Amino acid sequence: MSLVEIVIPVYNEERVLEASVLRLYAFLRADLPYDFVITVADNASTDTTWNVASRLAETLPHVRAVHLDRKGRGRALRRVWSESSADVVAYMDVDLSTDLDAFLPLVMPLLSGHSDLAIGSRLARGARVVRGPKREFISRSYNLLLRTLMRAHFTDAQCGFKAGRTEVVQALLPAVQDEEWFFDTELLLLAERLGLRVHEVPVDWTDDPDSRVDIVRTALDDLRGMARVRREIRRGRFTAAVPSPRARDRVAA
């Protein structure tokens, strides 16, 4: 049976981690018709997050914990995804803002071979979103820039609800430079440049009022990442960064 690995990157999430993992675990056991493993990737937390993650891994089958010495969501995903032996790798934010009912539609096209990557979209037709006007404005502006300046075809680069065929993701990872929030966008831009199939799933999404993401800093980091990728595209270095012709052929297959 196919195996799906879901990564939850966390930094100082001692208050919500246990409840979120238990909720996700119950959902997957009841509704996912595939084997699964949940990996909590602790990004150098300074609270008791690692203790909570370790206890969950000891208590629940199909749950494991990985500790990183440095922060960075992209760094955590790179570490776990590059070592995964699953058929499909995925990740979601620890607050589970995205309705879990969208998870099966997210991974099914990957397991069937129809698509290479899949993303949840809060901006696709049929999505239902509850969030403040500041986040809404920044998100829409950022994705508009991606479509205008980078000629991206996906509608929502920032939603923390993504998956990919493991062999495809592992072939792309060496070419992705970012280790933090722009990691997702860079992976998607690279995939589109190589002609890979990106499937979008409209999601129901509710903003977490307790989120500690620095919106302005993240937006600036994303803009710097976009400028870097534009320079690499102009110099012909972006897709050339895929590690070898053999890996490129594997990705494009």
Automatic annotation (TrEMBL):
Protein name as it appears in the record: Glycosyltransferase
Domain Glycosyltransferase 2-like: from-to ranges: 6-172
InterPro entries assigned: Glyco_trans_2-like, Nucleotide-diphossugar_trans
Ribosomal protein recorded as keyword: no
Sorted UniProt keywords: Glycosyltransferase, Transferase
Class in the EC hierarchy, top level: transferase
Coiled coil: none
E.C. designation(s): 2.4.-.-
GO MF assignments: glycosyltransferase activity
SUPFAM superfamilies assigned to the protein according to its UniProt record, in alphabetical order: Nucleotide-diphospho-sugar transferases (SSF53448)
Protein source organism: Actinomadura parmotrematis
